[in-house]
């Protein structure tokens, strides 16, 4: 429990200037910027002057452990289930979790492998211009569509929407954010209504995730379409936006660290450990937001009711108090404190699916190639806040 005078965590330090997470000097090298903040200013007031950013691992955990004081209902928009507090969060999570059991997910793995193989087969026809970012986004989009059992031809629509949404968030374009939300709802409602029509005519004979979502009962009533749309948008953030960044970060790291790449090629059983370590070093999702439900003193600062607090996942996973030599890749590291998939009751529901998705993409890349390196003719293009990955990453396949 956080107490009114709790000062047991990191000492407070503020810059003279308010912190702007969208500033060029931050986004041009996010890891470097967050490392510097972690070292010198572990807590800062954000540019809006009405919210704080926490960079240290232990502060991030303590905030997320206290959702009575730091509520997950920090957005005016629906965010199911992660934007719900107790008891609603657990109620929705239990109901939704029935659609994500191993029994339902495992039969889909062969389809995910097929998606990766087909995309890599296309790439091998032009190995000198293989865009790893294109591979990552099309792979993750098609995985999400396969999971929902929707037409894979929707992949470009899904990717374009995801990138437009990231761009609007980066530029804090509220008008475009509203337009994106309306576009998303139109897409999802169209698919849900089409499925209802199919089911009414007994066209769709097999139950899948879309059917499961349509059949979920909360307090004896079906989930409204707005809540299903929010849930699928949340799924998209994890399976497409974040996971595409994870894939590009892993490919970039291994393309620039041929010794580690070769170690994995010599012993593919090392792949899981390597992916955990690379995603710790290079997080794909920058932050999450909470809102104070009451006036509270935390870490030596007075946070007023209604003020927002942001936890920085990237810096937390590079905290030297938790990870020795935090900016270096190390075999044999303990990843039990790795926060890439969230923490506590709001930990990612699809964590196992996400891990498998990442492993399939990277395993097939290793299996289909002898090596891969960065192209000397192309400069990688970064994806920045709220993401951390690549929008273009040309590699040479051998």
Distance between the termini: 55 Å
Question: How many domains would you count in the coordinates?
Answer: 1
Detail the poorly predicted runs. Answer: 1-15
Helix/strand class: alpha+beta
Write the layout of secondary structure elements.
Blueprint (H helix, E strand, L loop, with lengths): L23 H4 L2 H11 L2 E3 L5 E4 L2 H8 L5 E2 L16 H10 L4 H4 L3 H16 L5 E2 H17 L6 H16 L3 H27 L8 H7 L1 E2 L2 E2 L2 H31 L2 H9 L4 H11 L5 E6 L3 E3 L2 E3 L4 E5 H4 L34 H18 L3 E3 L6 E3 L5 E4 L1 E4 L1
Parallel strand pairs: 2-10
Antiparallel strand pairs: 1-2, 3-7, 4-14, 5-6, 7-10, 8-9, 11-14, 12-13
Give keywords.
Cytochrome p450, three-stranded antiparallel sheet, alpha+beta, 398 residues, five-stranded mixed sheet
Concise structural overview:
The chain is an alpha+beta fold and 398 residues long.
